[in-house]
Amino acid sequence: MADVSDDAKAEPARATAPIAGALFAANIGVFVAQVILSGNWRYALGMPEPILRWLGANASLWTIADNRFETLVTSCFLHGSVLHLGLNMFVLWQVGPLLERAIGSARFFTLYLGAGIVGSAASAIWGRFFGQTLSVGASGALCGLLAAAMIVGIRTEGWKSELAIGMARWLGLIFLVGLIRAFRKDIAQIDNAAHVGGALGGVIVALTWQRGVTYSRRAEQAIIAACVGVILASGAVIYVRNRTDPYLFLDHEGRMKAALDAYHNGRCDHARAAMSRAVQMDPHNRTIRELGEEIARECSDPASPTPVPHIRR
Predict the structure, then answer these.
(1) Is residue 14 pLDDT above 50, yes or no?
(2) Which of 55, 167, 192, 253 has the fewest Cβ atoms surrounding its Cβ within 10 A?
(3) What is the pTM of this model?
(4) What is the domain count for the chain?
(5) Residue span of the structural domain in which 220 resides
């Protein structure tokens, strides 16, 4: 792991924080694009869930059922409102440059991205088992930055260092607000699972750093390019799937209806595909399984090439 004071003296090129600045600009730019694409500037005060899902939000039911793992990345750059964006960018502006100058741009970028993905995954898993969630925002990644900065402070200056205590206070405040939200449902949505997951991700990443080990300029550029590639590829997958997957925005009932419509129009391939996606979304639903089995049975029977009346829409 890099020594904060030594690196600051030895590598003056790190006096700036280009990745923190780029992430700051990217989050703001994406939010402006959100508002423009939504077609209504009032959505800056609160973005509707359907639009957020279309843009790549981490909707737990769809993320897991449809293997929409690209949303674990894209959701980290979306925000639900200008207030949501402002709060997150305030934290990034306060903590990001300090940490990037301490650990280097390559470590900082991988930390931000890795913690964000872990936070999104924690949110999706929690939502899948304890009630559907829709998660957007940089807060999971930011909790990872705070937790990693705390580890840096502990490993370089001890438990009582100013850095460790300061980062612990930031995390404590975030978790406290989340705890209040758990008992006050009237407070705006706070994704506690993403915060905890992001913080754990940050701790894990920080613990892998070896003190005194630095990257060459070429290695640092390759790592940064790879992180940018992951982000761009995730956005490209969102774009393609939005336009090619007819079941992407349907819940299990919508997929069942699509299957029945296809079946009664004699399109068995489409009916089987829609039912397969419905089962994938709710595998323990007996009604869905039975309907899927019935459609598969009727479609596979060469003696019944036309829709069978007893399968209702």
Answers:
(1) no
(2) 253
(3) 0.85
(4) 2
(5) 4-244
